[in-house]
Amino acid sequence: MTPAPEKLLLAAPRGYCAGVDRAVQTVERALELHGPPVYVRKEIVHNKHVVQQLAERGAIFVEELDDEIPEGAVTVFSAHGVSPAVHADAHRRGLRTIDATCPLVTKVHKEAIKFAAEGYTIVLIGHEGHEEVEGTMGEVPEGQIALVETEDDVDALEIEDPERIAFLTQTTLSVDETRAVIARLRDRFPAITGPRTDDICYATTNRQLAVKQMAGECDLVLVIGSRNSSNSNRLVDVARAAGAESHLIDNEAQVREEWLDGARVVGITSGASAPEELVQRLIDFFRARGTEVVEEFEVLREDVRFMLPKVIRQAVAARQG
Question: So which residues are the catalytic ones?
Fold first, then answer.
């Protein structure tokens, strides 16, 4: 067996953000209030472990509303947000919906609606196929919004009126990644306008900042998160860009022996949808191998909290009353 690392560094902040915490609690409370089954459109958050735990408690995860959910059933929309068409479909089928969309994603939706109403063509920086991107694009009439991922995509854009153009970003991207794309947009379209404040989620930014600073002291950085988690994948990119070897894992069972060869200091972080218990399991894995030194690498402290959706708060109050 490869020798154990001498030291573990734990990035702080890491793990659950306020939006994920709110979304997971929303499903838990819905199950308590209404009993199973509670239907959830898409994964409530992008983490296999969380989804599996909620499924064991009676949540049923479906890809789309049609046919899979009985009429009138309690249905939760995921943290990533949905388009107006999905809301309309749910209303048509009489579903009792609970919207767990992260408030920061809702902010982007509102910005998209505002820019569209003012006649702007919107350029959305994001990853094609991501649920958040699909939800945001659904807020805008077809032909009035374009998706870009790279600077080359910006170069290929054809905009009818370059004087009426605005940009928005997916909340879970890398700050450095979007900086370059926004700079190219400003070069090509000097009149472009954007949101008053950065759309990239505070938690995404903070977790990247912590990894960027920690990676310089690590031989290896392990990021706990699922493959379909955009913010988790970006943490691996950030660690590698800072000079450390880095890998994305769902849990401690995925750690490979060859990664640990020569790794004296191992950094650990987790994406915004990964629960802390997975971090603790990874620490236990290394302790069992003989690692004794475990230190927090705190860059800043977060104190953001989001209230649960109004329908949940009202139902809880009614039950207590």
Answer: 132
